[in-house]
Amino acid sequence: MKIRLILSFLALMALSLSGAVFAEQKFEEDLHYFSIIPAQPGGEGERVQITEFFLYTCPHCFNLEPHIEAWLKRKPENVDFDRVPGMFNRESTRIQGTMFYALRLMGVAEQLHQKIFSAIHEEGESLDNQQQIEEFLAKNGVDLDAYRKAMKSFAVQTQARRASILAERYDVRSVPSIIVDGKYRASGLSGDATMRLTDFLIDKVKVERGAVTK
User: Fold this and answer.
1) pTM, whole model, 2 decimals?
2) Residue 19: which pLDDT band, with cuts at 50, 70 and 90?
3) Is 182 exposed, middle or buried (0-12, 13-18, 19+ CB in 10 A)?
4) How many domains does the chain have?
5) Percentage above 70 pLDDT, the chain
6) Cα dist from 76 to 36, 50, 72, 206, whole Å
7) CB of 191 within 8 A of CB of 67?
């Protein structure tokens, strides 16, 4: 019994120490984040723009979602957040990306965002083509006639093209990737570490802005 208690205590100590080391992790350029060259426009005035590139089929994006949602509740007021679907010149990702913008135009993207992730990663649905997507949307109460019109609209087609252009400008080659104010790209970490890195880069941008204005 004593041996078990000692082993349990040692295990807890090891977890505590590893957690402390992880919490004190130092983020390094060209390892955890990368400068975007040339830097792209960021937030206006004192605002900082954060952009997440994602794919609905990406398991890492799915796992990051709850951490993003928690971060959104505590992010600074002067920080703006946006999602951009990765296109990557594949038909299935192009269709899903355009679907995202069509649902956003209809005002239902936020309420369906997590449901789409869950359908793919927890319920095994493919959603790789228009028929599968429309069947899913119909089950979730989306007006398919309105959806089809939105898919063909100039606004949605323009946003889809812009998503591809932004990915090239930011040199996004994998997802999830977090772009901080058009200056830094964070990728490769997971979960809460990604959001801590995002906070680190937000502070870095603020310091650099102060240095420029002095």
Assistant:
1) 0.85
2) very low
3) buried
4) 1
5) 86
6) 23, 11, 9, 12
7) yes
Report d(CA 69, CA 86) in Å as an integer: 19
For the record, the structure tokens of 98 come out as 């355009």
Range of the domain at 53: 31-202
In a domain, 161, yes or no: yes
User: Is the omega angle on the peptide bond into residue 38 within 30 degrees of 0, that is, cis?
Assistant: yes
Q: What is the domain-level CATH number for residue 187?
A: 3.40.30.10
Neighbours of 209 (CB within 10 A): 15
Please give the DSSP secondary-structure letter assigned to residue 27: P
Q: SS3 for 33? A: strand
| pLDDT value of residue 90 | 87
Assigned domain for 211 exists: no
| Rounded to 5°, angle at Cα 104 from 49 and 133 | 125
Quickly list H helices, the chain. 2-23, 59-72, 91-106, 109-121, 130-139, 144-152, 154-169, 191-213
* 1 CB-near residues (< 8 Å, 6+ apart): none
Residue 117 counted as domain residue: yes
CB 174 within 8 A of CB 133: no
* Residue 96: C-alpha distances to residues 115, 170, 172, 190 (Å): 13, 21, 18, 23
* CB 9 within 8 Å of CB 42: no
Domain assignment present for 6: no
Which two three-digit tokens encode residue 190? 């997971």
